[in-house]
Amino acid sequence: MALEIALIDVVAGQEADFEAAYREARRQLEGAGAQSIRMTRGIETPTRFVLLVEWESVEAHEAFRASDAFGIWRGLIGPHFANPPHVEHFTDVEG
User: Fold this and answer.
1) What's residue 16's pLDDT?
2) Is the pTM of this model over 0.70?
3) I need a surface site. Which of 19, 36, 43, 62 has the fewest CB within 10 A?
4) pLDDT band for position 1 (50/70/90)?
């Protein structure tokens, strides 16, 4: 399992529009095989969102990014970005 974490800063005043676009765009992730999807919004910084997506692997996420579905995803939410999101992948630590 690979956990994608994306830090997304949204243009001030566009938070509600971004949330509405995300609700529509989320279907693209669901159709691409994301195992779980969660979007959170900052309390102290309400223009900052954190997207958490569990993928089977980094390769599964990369396949999504190479697909037409990613273009739809980015086309819906991208206009609200204040700057490009910071995206990293994480894996569980056994313990």
Assistant:
1) 98
2) yes
3) 43
4) very high
24-33 burial code (b ≥16 CB/10 A, e <16): ebbebbeebe
Q: What is the DSSP track for 42-62?
A: -SSSTTEEEEEEEES-HHHHH
Report yes or no: 13 and 79 within 8 Å, Cβ to Cβ: no
Q: Note the residue count of the chain.
A: 95
Provide the token pair at 15: 């938070």
Which amino acid belongs to residue 32? A
Q: What is the mean pLDDT of residues 74-90?
A: 98
CA distances from 74 to 45, 67, 68 (A): 22, 11, 10
Burial environment of residue 86 by CB neighbours within 10 A (0 to 12, 13 to 18, 19 or more): exposed
Q: What's the pLDDT at 95? A: 82
